[in-house]
Amino acid sequence: MPFEDAVELVFRCPTCGKPLMHYDNEDIIEVLEKKVEQLRNELSD
Question: Most CB contacts within 10 A, which of 9, 30, 31, 33?
Fold first, then answer.
């Protein structure tokens, strides 16, 4: 969820009302970017 939306919801889940938890997804993004690069290389061969 974008930060702006979380602020509007006072950092609460819109479905259940529980507090939102911060999650750093940098590792996942890095793996996905590498996979995309690998697939692009395979397609260009």
Answer: 9
